[in-house]
Amino acid sequence: MAALIVTGVLAAVSALMAALGKQQISKATPPKPEQTMDSVKTDVAEIKEKTQR
């Protein structure tokens, strides 16, 4: 009987932790590749500059 109670408590704690983790993941923003974005902007500016000459 004690094993069933312990299993039930552990299952409830696991479900709570999973729900909280899912909530945190959904709030997180996707990471932006900042260095790549800056590099692409620099490349585009340089290409525009060279084509205007």
From TrEMBL:
Family matches, as Pfam families: Phage_holin_3_6 (PF07332)
Protein name, as recorded: Uncharacterized protein
The keyword Signal is assigned to this record: yes
Ranges for region Disordered: 24-53
InterPro entries for this protein: Phage_holin_3_6 (IPR009937)
Domain of life from the UniProt record: Bacteria
Region forming the signal peptide: 1-18
Bias (Basic and acidic residues) ranges: 40-53
Record's keyword terms, sorted: Signal
